[in-house]
Design brief:
4-stranded antiparallel beta sheet, single chain, APP-Binding, 230 residues, repeat, 2 domains, 5 helices, PDZ_6, 29% strand, PDZ_sf, alpha+beta, Pdz3 Domain, disordered N terminus
Length: 230
């Protein structure tokens, strides 16, 4: 169930800004500032040679979807892939110089198995229409936005949210680098409330893009026929 607008009043007022989640502990560790540190991509394209970790992997899980695309559905925090700038929802265009559009996960597994070097060569594409927005909490107006099922439904005028370009019809994908796709609104709220220093960084995409593509990443059954760990 979505959080009611009455419950979300903390986003437009200072009351409740320090509330803790129901389980009594914050979802974001206090005193740990979160910074978005992705290296710049060229037109959304990243060409990367990522060194493998101790387990022989770079720290991502990819999924095949019906459109014939291979999308990243999980990135291990602070892994080589994470530090290289890969994020949830990015598309893997090629692996070891072989284009992956229309290829099956079996082919991806084969390419990974054949790779005996200590690094993997990837070409990826950032999420279409993605934006990172950092919002500062106002003592009187709060963060200045509301959401339902992760979708921004209201942005208050003359707030940091409005000045930073946050607007309706945007879907929240990450909060402080934590993926929140499929997460209940009250849990998203808890992460925002746990933000250190009264600032929160959101990754948002247009709702239309989210509904057409990324909402399906988490809805497909987790089975070995569609998933590959790299």
């Amino acid at each position: 169930m979505s959080v009611s607008w009455e419950q979300q009043d903390l986003f437009v007022s200072s009351s409740g800004a320090n509330r803790t989640p129901r389980n009594g502990r914050g979802l974001v560790e206090p005193g740990c500032p979160v910074r978005i540190s992705r290296l710049a991509a060229v037109d959304g394209i990243r060409e990367l040679l990522i060194r493998k970790g101790e387990d022989g992997k770079i720290g991502i899980t990819v999924r095949y979807i019906e459109e014939g695309k291979i999308l990243i559905c999980a990135v291990l925090r602070r892994s080589p892939a994470y530090l290289a700038g890969l994020r949830y929802g990015d598309e893997v265009l090629s692996l070891e110089d072989e284009p992956l559009v229309g290829k099956t996960v079996d082919r991806v597994r084969e390419l990974v198995r054949k790779n005996t070097r200590n690094s993997i060569k990837l070409r990826t594409k950032d999420k279409p229409g993605e934006r990172y927005v950092t919002v500062v909490r106002d003592e009187e107006k709060g963060y200045g936005f509301r959401f339902v099922d992760g979708e921004i439904t209201f942005v208050r005028s003359h707030t940091s949210a409005q000045r930073q370009g946050l607007e309706r019809k945007l879907q929240i994908i990450e909060v402080n680098e934590e993926v929140v796709v499929g997460t209940k609104d009250e849990d998203i709220e808890a992460i925002i409330c746990g933000s250190d220093g009264g600032t929160v960084t959101l990754c948002v995409v247009p709702v239309k893009v989210y509904r057409q593509l990324f909402s399906r990443i988490s809805s497909i059954t987790n089975d070995s026929l569609t998933l590959v760990e790299l």
